[in-house]
């Protein structure tokens, strides 16, 4: 386990500290690539109208189902809507999914894992049973079952994913905290009489947070896969909301004549997923997180 | 702990798991907006019909009695009638479950057939171009949603090239397998990526191990060292991975079956949501979770025979 120690625990590990500082000057290539890809999608998500060449919902009856061309690089759909513009417009929803489907699990799971890992006891035993139980439900199946109860839609999808998703963050944080607790610097902080809140949030959390941050990146990639899948099935974002999965479902009936309606939004999903994965890999490299 | 003791403990452990699965599914139905009975019967149901079904389902009794009643019914396989199909839910699932299990089984075989040789190539050429190419291809596979991969394969191989059927399930046994081929490949691709990444890592670890060096030093042929010593040991983690992945595979089957119109439980689940067929959703959630926990159990037992260190 190569969990690097914080600055105030230096002393014997000054050698390692030096290598860490050296490493910070070199940005890992995957991280750079990930930052570029994700920033591109963020830009599309924030200002789609500035990047998209056409209005994503404007009909154009002079260009129905036209194949990719200079005027429409990704082609048009059965209403003559520009697929490139629609794909760009949809990134707003899909990046929202990446964030909204993971933010509550991230915050709640990390806090719960922090306390359970630190205090242990009956809560820890109970949590162990909960993890065993949660993993027996196929994730997609339990999410679909919850969406079935709440009704299809983006908000209900966030709720369904959050109800289950926090457990994985809590499990990860708990494991980290258990390891960190055995380090001398935590014992030192206790001996110094620091408050529990200070030890938890100033000493343990910053170190436990690094693998969680890496996992968050992967989880955002997974959230986009899940969100677009539910959108495709009609359980997530509802048409006419432009979302990559919904766009693909829109085009599936035209697939053999007009493959471009489905293929290009799919590219966006794949590229965005790779972007977040690279970001995760690069961060793991940079923060020295073993996976 | 000895071997028999371990097996007995592991077998007993599944009983509380089953009960807890039942509890989750029970609570889930309780969260339905409004009364489950009126949700099932619809707005136009007469008071008399509502009361009859309420009594029949035990809703007039205490919540604990209801839960026990629910468990009792689940154990005997009585999940009531489907609202959409008007047949017993158990029959509906019994007809479709074999299809889904065949699909996931085929997908697992395909995934292993793809992943194992490629992982070997990647591990033996670690950090050289074959390794990079294989890893990039699998990273793309990992980031591609199943429904998208399915649609692309369906269009290119079924609609354009007409090599495979466009969907459905066929008539004879052989026809069934033929119809399941493309869906199984679709489901296998992302799974293969997961297996390959894991197996590559464990292969590289085993290749460094002292016993492998010893086997080489003994003068054993390269092939024998690779197959008997390296692959055998590295595959132990793969067995665990395949077992732990069953949930993701069943979830993937839900999407694959919807794309290819395969008449399995996954498609039944999605259809049931739109039909508000709650008894079916409830029963399927329960059945799939039970399948996963049984597979976990079997995985543990297999791992124990492969790697005797587990019981110690």
CATH topology of the largest domain in chain B: MetI-like fold
N-end to C-end Cα span of chain B? 6 Å
The total count of strands of chain A amounts to 0
* Strand-pairing-aware structural class of chain A: mainly alpha
Mean of all residue-level pLDDT scores of chain A: 87
Return the domain count of chain B.
Answer: 2
Class per helix and strand makeup of chain B: mainly alpha
By CATH, the superfamily of chain A comes out as MetI-like
Strand content of chain B: under 5%
Query: For the record, what is the CATH homologous superfamily label of the largest domain in chain B?
Result: MetI-like
Descriptive labels:
heterodimer, A: 291 residues, mainly alpha, MetI-like fold, 0% strand, disordered N terminus, B: 312 residues, 13 helices, 78% helix, MetI-like (chain A), peptide transport (chain A)
Task: Describe the protein's topology.
The complex is a heterodimer of chains A (291) and B (312).
Chain A: H1 14-25, H2 29-46, H3 48-51, H4 83-119, H5 122-136, H6 139-150, H7 154-180, H8 184-191, H9 196-233, H10 244-251, H11 260-286
Helix pairs in contact in A: 2-4, 2-11, 4-7, 4-9, 4-11, 6-7, 7-9, 8-9, 9-10, 9-11, 10-11
Chain B: H1 3-30, H2 36-41, H3 47-57, H4 63-75, H5 89-124, H6 129-143, H7 146-160, H8 173-207, H9 210-217, H10 222-244, H11 246-260, H12 265-274, H13 278-306
Helix pairs in contact in B: 1-4, 1-13, 5-6, 5-8, 5-11, 5-13, 6-8, 7-8, 7-11, 8-10, 8-11, 9-10, 10-13, 11-12, 12-13
Pfam families (chain A): BPD_transp_1
Subcellular location (chain A): Cell membrane
Membrane topology (chain A): Multi-pass membrane protein
Question: Please, could you describe this protein's structure?
Answer:
Chain B: Belongs to the binding-protein-dependent transport system permease family. Chain B: Keywords: Cell membrane, Membrane, Transmembrane, Transmembrane helix, Transport. Chain B: This is ABC transporter permease. The complex is a heterodimer of chains A (291) and B (312). Chain A is mainly α and 291 residues long. Chain A has one domain: MetI-like fold (Orthogonal Bundle). In chain A, 71% of the residues lie in helices and 0% in strands. Chain A is built from eleven helices and no strands. In chain A, helix 2 packs across helix 11 and helix 10 packs antiparallel against helix 11. The longest helix of chain A is centred in the last third of the chain and has 38 residues. The N terminus of chain A is likely disordered. Chain B has 312 residues and is an all-alpha fold. Chain B has two domains: 73 residues, no CATH class; 219 residues, MetI-like fold (Orthogonal Bundle). Chain B has 13 helices and no strands. In chain B, helix 6 packs across helix 8. The longest helix of chain B has 36 residues. Chain B is globular and about 85 Å long. The mean pLDDT of chain B is 86. Chains A and B meet through helix 5, helix 6, helix 9 and helix 11 of A and helix 1, helix 6, helix 7, helix 11 and helix 12 of B.
């Amino acid at each position: 386990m190569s969990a690097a120690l914080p600055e105030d625990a230096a002393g014997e590990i000054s050698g390692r500290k030096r290598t860490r500082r050296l490493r910070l000057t070199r940005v890992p290539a995957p991280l750079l690539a990930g930052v570029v890809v994700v920033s591109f999608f963020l830009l599309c998500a924030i200002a789609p109208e500035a990047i998209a060449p056409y209005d994503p919902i404007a009909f154009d009856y002079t260009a129905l189902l036209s194949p990719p061309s200079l005027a429409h690089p990704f082609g048009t759909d059965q209403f003559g809507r520009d697929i490139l513009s629609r794909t760009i417009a949809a990134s707003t929803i899909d990046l929202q999914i990446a964030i909204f489907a993971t933010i509550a699990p991230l915050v709640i799971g990390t806090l719960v894992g922090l306390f359970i890992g630190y205090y242990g006891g009956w809560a820890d035993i109970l949590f162990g049973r909960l993890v065993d139980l949660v993993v027996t439900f196929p994730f997609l199946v339990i999410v679909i079952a919850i969406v079935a109860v709440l009704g299809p839609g983006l908000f209900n999808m966030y709720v369904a994913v959050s109800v289950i998703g926090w457990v994985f963050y809590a499990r990860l944080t708990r494991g980290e905290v258990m390891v960190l607790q055995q380090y001398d610097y935590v014992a030192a902080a206790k001996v110094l009489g620091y408050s529990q809140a200070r030890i938890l949030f100033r000493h343990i959390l910053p170190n436990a947070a690094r693998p969680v941050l890496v996992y968050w990146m992967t989880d955002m990639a997974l959230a986009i896969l899940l969100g677009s899948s539910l959108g495709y099935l009609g359980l997530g974002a509802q048409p006419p909301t432009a979302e990559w999965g919904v766009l693909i479902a829109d085009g599936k009936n035209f697939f053999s004549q007009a493959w471009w309606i489905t293929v290009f939004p799919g590219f966006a999903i794949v590229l965005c997923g790779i972007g977040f994965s690279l970001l995760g890999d690069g961060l793991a490299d940079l923060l020295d997180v073993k996976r | 702990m000895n071997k028999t003791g371990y097996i007995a403990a592991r077998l007993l452990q599944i009983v509380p798991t089953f009960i807890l699965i039942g509890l989750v599914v029970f609570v889930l139905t309780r969260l339905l907006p409004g009364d489950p009975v009126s949700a099932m019967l619809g707005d136009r149901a007469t008071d008399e019909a509502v009361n009859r079904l309420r009594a029949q389902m035990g809703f007039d009794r205490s919540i604990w009695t209801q839960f026990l009643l629910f468990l009792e019914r689940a154990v005997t396989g009585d999940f009531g009638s489907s609202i959409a199909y008007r047949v017993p839910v158990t029959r509906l699932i019994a007809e479709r479950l074999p299809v889904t299990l065949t699909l996931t089984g085929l997908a697992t075989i395909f995934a292993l057939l793809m992943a194992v040789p490629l992982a070997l190539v990647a591990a033996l050429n670690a950090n050289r171009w074959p390794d990079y190419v294989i890893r990039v291809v699998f990273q793309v596979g990992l980031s591609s949603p199943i429904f998208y991969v399915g649609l692309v394969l369906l269009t290119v191989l079924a609609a354009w090239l007409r090599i495979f059927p466009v969907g459905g399930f066929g008539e004879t046994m052989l026809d069934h397998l033929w119809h399941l081929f493309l869906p199984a490949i679709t489901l296998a691709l992302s799974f293969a990526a997961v297996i390959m990444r894991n197996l590559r890592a464990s292969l590289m670890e085993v290749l460094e191990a002292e016993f492998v060096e010893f086997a080489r030093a003994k003068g054993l042929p390269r092939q024998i060292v690779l197959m008997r010593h390296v692959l055998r040991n590295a595959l132990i983690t793969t067995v665990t991975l395949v077992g732990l992945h069953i949930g993701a595979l069943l979830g993937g089957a839900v999407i694959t079956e919807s794309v290819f119109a395969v008449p399995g439980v996954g498609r039944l689940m999605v259809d049931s949501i739109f039909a508000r067929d709650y008894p079916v959703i409830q029963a399927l959630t329960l059945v799939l979770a039970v399948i996963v926990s049984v597979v976990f159990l079997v995985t543990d037992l297999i791992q124990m025979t492969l790697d005797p260190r587990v019981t110690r």
